[in-house]
Request: fold
Amino acid sequence: MRTIGSIVLAALVATTAAAAPIPYAPTAKDAVPAAILGNGAAPAGAPVQYFAEDDKTVGYLALPMGPGAHGAVILIHEWNGLVDRVKQVADAFAAEGYVAFAADLYSGRTGKNPDENMALVKETLADLPKVVRNLDAAVAYLKAHEQINGKIAAIGWCFGGGVALSFALDGVDHAGTAMFYGRLLDDPDKMKMIHHEIYGTFAGLDPTIPKDQVEKFATALKAAGIPNDIHVYDAVQHGFWLYVDRDPEHNAAPALDAWQRLKAYLQRTLQ
Reply:
């Protein structure tokens, strides 16, 4: 893994527009963020140029109200790119008291349909070292921010979940990785590079990530000595957490449990 010093330049050239701080308003024990219910407010954060290698890359920063030091989260978008729902979720993390930074892996682009989304995925994964450099630059940007306590976790969904795992393996050191679905590994030797607890949420009805793959992943983590909180919710489909509104009858209860687990994970990882 590379050290933070090798990418400090990215933080120095980052530019940030003015962002309205998000008031501290954590969800109740029986509630999930409005953003994943489809009821999120307009994003209140600000765009950030943080990746010196590509000036078309524009992330999104949501700051909690009040002085630091706060833990920070890097959000890694799904296959369609850095869309408003991801920004709204960043605002939700800021309301929980975290500095939230949504990375942009598509150079400012978003997909409008499955064909465009898949084309962006294939193009991006064809240069995975650049993806890792992008996220390294996000870490450098946050490490230089006066409001954080130095602890950072990466959180990704689907495409972003797999990227989060790749970043745990090859990126600069960070304090946590939370995966919602995403590409998995089952080789404990490869995962020995990870030095923090892994959070994972998966869907039992997801045809792209069968339950047996998740079980092999959890077994490999255990064999590698990596603490983890891995859970499969049996009665839901892929994407159930970020889009509870697609099937609230089935998604609401598992989404709440996954959110409570995630909040506990971030508290013990980033405090």
